[in-house]
Amino acid sequence: MNRFTPSFTALLVGACFFLAGCGPQKTETATPPAPAAAGAKVIEITAGDNMKFNLAEITAAPGEEITVALTNIGTQPKVAMGHNWVLLKKDVDAGAFATAAMQAQSTEYLPASQQDNVLAHTRLLGAKEKDKVTFKAPAEPGEYVYLCTFPAHYQMGMKGVLIVR
Ligand SMILES: [Cu+2]
Prior knowledge:
Elements: H1 4-29, E1 41-47, E2 57-60, E3 65-72, H2 78-81, E4 86-88, H3 94-101, E5 118-121, E6 130-136, E7 142-147, E8 159-164
Parallel strand pairs: 1-3, 2-8
Antiparallel strand pairs: 3-6, 4-5, 4-7, 7-8
The site of copper (II) ion has 7 residues, from loops.
């Protein structure tokens, strides 16, 4: 048994050196994403003709400043396939919100009557357009629904959840 101990130890030491050698190199070569606002964590979200966000779940610490950068990677005209990103307050009925939003074409599907239910939102984007919004995550831990309010997109599954913890 003792016979194997030294070689096992050597293996461990070797692994440690290997990891130690790799660690700093990784840090040096990593390119941090350019912050949109000082200190804000940037979350890149894409929306396409498949009527889905690329991310169905994002996370933030309570009160953390985050920037959601939305890109419409689709190809359809805005009138047929516009996308936005709208974060709702806790416990807002997202289905009812989406239904009310359908009527609000003149305000890019964000009805004035529903503004009190919104924590943050981008504008409505046509193909290849981008927009970003910076905001503080809610102080209260929990799950906050985000959705696209273009007609029928929420019903097609264009939604996700911000988890604050
Ligand atoms: Cu959409």
